Amino acid sequence: MGHFIHLSEENYLKTLYKLTFKQVKKVNNIALAKELGLNPATVLEMVRKLASKKLVKVSGDKTIQLTESGKKNALLIIRKHRLWEVFLTEKLKYAWNEVHELAEQLEHVESEDMIDRLEAFLEYPAFDPHGDPIPDRNGNIKSKTSVSLASAVHGKTYIVINLADTSDSFLDYLGRLNIKPGSKFKLVEHNQYDNSSTITIQKKMISLSEKVAKNILVQPA
Amino acid sequence: MGHFIHLSEENYLKTLYKLTFKQVKKVNNIALAKELGLNPATVLEMVRKLASKKLVKVSGDKTIQLTESGKKNALLIIRKHRLWEVFLTEKLKYAWNEVHELAEQLEHVESEDMIDRLEAFLEYPAFDPHGDPIPDRNGNIKSKTSVSLASAVHGKTYIVINLADTSDSFLDYLGRLNIKPGSKFKLVEHNQYDNSSTITIQKKMISLSEKVAKNILVQPA
DNA sequence: TAATTTTATTTGGTATACCAAATTTTTTTA
DNA sequence: TAAAAAAATTTGGTATACCAAATAAAATTA
Q: What's the predicted TM-score (pTM) here?
């Protein structure tokens, strides 16, 4: 059987993928430990294990990188997660910001075949309810050309494509403002004083802090 | 939070329920260990743990019994298992004898609310694809008045209601004969020589061994 | 560059859930 | 009832995945 990937290892791979592909700076022990909420000693141990399985490699400067195999594994886990999120919102009528935790559990059910069937049942969705693209069964993913709201041009109309922060507090906050992937709005201006952004959405004018605006990814409408 | 029930504990409770309610003889350490495929030492340890959580009690003669709380827990796990089985067959088009392993994994996803929604999505099925009744959200289950094929009356027509053995080999065997819950057949006779039963199903005459017949539960058609 | 801070690693420890083998207790059988 | 068999339990062990605290190494800052 060789070595198969445990539940916990899956979380490391998935988190590594997210850190590697969504952040600019390099991923080290500490960053990974912080993201996972674990002790650096624990993470070090596991990273070594993953390295021995050729799923990650650690460079001279201690940067942790996914190998091709590790990346593919991560993308297949992300595929499962996102397909389950689609199921939870479309079929079980959950709100898009309620599904993360449940998908987190469901993604660890082991069966590629079941996921392929789930994908067919959901009629091959391209994006999850947060606007993230769903990798195909070979681990290929399409990247989207979106920019952060903070760096968008004022006076234009945009559509929310994705959210760079998946924390509950962030998603809840946006939920209360009724901002979600697919939402259309006009960017009125960036305010020099505090770098906040003012938008009009559904006839309401809303001001979003710099931190919030940076985590909202948009495309021109 | 008190104590919450772990994945492994759930398997013990579920297995205890099955042994207690589907078998006649009392359930002891050895029987439970054999059913779970575990070492008696392991089972003893866990049974003590479950007892300390008031989920089981061990009588003077070492019989292990579920408490009310343990029984309810077991039934809620069985509820999850059976609802997922319905999902897998009805929505993902699995055959009724392919879903057990997958449901085994899915049943451990923790969310009563999700299961209630799943039940609604599936339009409140009363039975799983094997013909077993699905407990409601309070852990209530309807028992059915079925008899084993081995003790049914010859010359009459029956419908397969349920299967008392869920092993792969048994289910595969029945699958090849195209016998499943819902199948209709006529019981021709019980053969005195080896206690086998002869039935006609879909115009074919089939002889079933005593062991097989005992594990097929039927109701008059 | 020396001091400080940050990062990486080691060390010794925990809990869970499992095991094999030895032993004790109970039950069965001769 | 004594011997044998079966069941229950104890003992000492494993692997996984986690931790806190100590130490070592590297990077940063003064």
A: 0.76
